[in-house]
Predict the structure.
Amino acid sequence: MIPLLELKNVSKNYASLKSFRHYTDSSQDVLKNINFSIHSGESIGLIGESGCGKTTLAKIAAGLEKPTAGQVLYSGTDIQKFNFTTMQRVRKDVQIIFQSSKSIFNPYHTIGKSLRHALENFEDLSEHEMKNKIAAMLERVGLDASFADRYPEKLSGGQRQRANIARALIVSPKLIICDEPVASLDFSIRKKTLDMLNELIREMSLTCLFISHDISTVRYTCKKIAVMYRGVIVELFSLEEGNSLKPEHPYSRMLLNSVPICHPRQRTERRPIPPSCFGKEEFKGNGCVFYDLCDCKQPRCADTTPELNELGKAHYLACHRYSL
Ligand SMILES: Nc1ncnc2c1ncn2[C@@H]1O[C@H](COP(=O)(O)OP(=O)(O)O)[C@@H](O)[C@H]1O
Ligand SMILES: [Mg+2]
């Protein structure tokens, strides 16, 4: 079956600006040779530490940024080859819910006006139909129709994030990319928002790419999880029966081992803080991106990049320990 969205050998490099006209050579590879696909109806979680390239991947997948190398295929066709009309269809079908709902809305427009703008881009509706659709969508995300007349600053963080979800879903997309949708909310409303999002995904038969730096949030929404480190997808695995996680990559294991245990009696030892590439020099070599911090490295890990190979059913791993 052709995936709904596929990233083939995608790399992204932001050349840094030296002066007004010139770019320096000290450009940074944010994504390195990403191969990733998502089929209709699937929900895949993408986890990784802050700065590893998750938002960049989301923007490239939605066609908001161009990859430096590689292709983004939508229903099997390279989006670079789409003309304006076809690209409009992709823009409608693929919606992003960004982390910060504050910067999404124009502060001078009411929520209703912002939702109307989103709709006007893709649908030709009468005034009456438009109003009804906005009211129904606001109610669907747990706000009432009167929120259409409010300005973004008059909403709490949780309400604004719900309005943000309404803005993405009102155009009836096929794929939603949720980029840390609950990271800016406090714990008391995170679960409620995630429950609502899960329900909407099921009800509207949406395909979902759920991005987070928090493995427990991703696990709540997705059955498949991709782990990213320094711009590379190092592992892709499915949740086992009973939602247990069985990752094999040393980095995925370290991430999992760092999740705090809720029940005090089950806490036997101090949970380690996951390793971070923060402050390290950019990785430019050919070896494994996790070489520095890996506790089971082999000599070839220093100079040969491990490929993302199939380890078992729906389990892909980029680690020399498991390659032939
Ligand atoms: N427009 C940009 N120009 C230059 N560098 C950028 C740009 N966007 C992101 N980056 C850099 O790319 C890296 C990954 O950023 P991002 O994709 O936002 O990470 P994440 O979402 O995982 O926190 C960071 O080092 C960031 O500074
Ligand atoms: Mg981000």
Summary: The chain has a mean pLDDT of 88. Residues 14, 30, 48, 50-56 surround adenosine-5'-diphosphate (ligand 1) (CB under 6 Å). The longest helix spans residues 187-203.
